[in-house]
Amino acid sequence: MAQVRSDTITTRAGEVTVSAVVTGLDTPWAFGFLPGGDIVLTERDGRVLIVAPGQGVAVLRNPPQVHVNGQGGLLDVLVPRDFAQSRELFFTHAKRQGGASGTAVTRAVLTPDGIALMDHRTIFEIEPGSRGGRHFGARIAEAPDGTLFLTVGDRGDRRSAQDRSLHNGSVLRIKRDGSVPDDNPFVGASGVQPEIWSYGHRNPQGAAFDAEGQFWVNEHGARGGDEVNRIVKGANFGWPVIAYGQHYAGGRIGEGTAKEGMEQPQTYWDPSIAPSGMTFYSGNIDGWTGDMFVGSLKFDYVARLSGSPLQEVEQIKGESTLRVRDVRQGPNGDLWFLSVGNGALYRMGLPNS
Question: Which three-class secondary structure string do you get for the chain?
Fold first, then answer.
């Protein structure tokens, strides 16, 4: 792994250079930027790394306690906007729940010396009851108002995405202490989990806010039908009643591709690309401003999406883009991504940037 340390890729904006910042990673899942330029990075089996570009990598002591189970383990990380004051980090992960496991959020504080985590507290976990190691979702993002949005997959139980007594197959909104905001759409509704913001999702593994503060997710379909969805408060996104893919064994899913009262995706992929981390670009590469960038785990590229209606307009692909798990914009406007296939964190920018 990590044989690819540099790459030059020709894009519609011209040549970009890709450089490995960290190599030798073991199933990396997510990363975020700390004030001052350091990077916090998660590996699915439970390690949390602090990367000082050009200087070295440290493994943090006392990481969150996670349940490694199939696709589950230590997953996303959020560096909140007030990190310089609070030193809080938020981690999503699989948590053992009796004989089952579920998506959870743990808040921890990075010690002043930057070598350990302390004061762990699990602020949220989904309603117990799901077995197996699939479809945890688990992307987390901070809204402009400071609340947290969390994606949860259907946990391999298709019908549960329409059952609002469970958290499965939902986008959730919580406060930073795990409590429920009063203006969530289903607060006070009988038999409905109050954290739910939208439902009818299959397995959302990419999430980001755009420049206008609108929340977006991408999610895995079955055999075809990977979606990009513009999230609407209280909305039903249809899974598994409507979908643009097929069952893995063939055959139509649910009732077709549309139904009254259920949202349509902004775009979809068929065949599936296995989308993952995503970001909106506001850096210095001409022609990319405002575009969405999404990693493909299946076809080994970074997708650029643009336009109205939204569509994939470019595939940024090279030896460095093997199984792209996370994509984020760095502080200086470069595009960064995690390659599971190369076990590396890469920085992409204009030559000599």
Answer: CCCCCEEEEEECCEEEEEEEEECCCCCEEEEEECCCCCEEEEECCCCEEEEECCCEEEECECCCCCCCECCECEEEEECCCCHHHHCEEEEEEEEEECCEEEEEEEEEEECCCCCEEEEEEEEEECCCCCCCCCCCCCCEEECCCCCEEEEECCCCCHHHHHCCCCCCCEEEEECCCCCCCCCCCCCCCCCCCCCEEEECCCCEEEEEECCCCCEEEEECCEEECEEEEECCCCCECCCCCECCCECCCCCECCCECCCCCCCCCCEEECCCCCEEEEEECCCCCCCCCCCEEEEECCCCEEEEEECCCCEEEEEECCCCCCCEEEEEECCCCCEEEEECCCCEEEEEECCCC
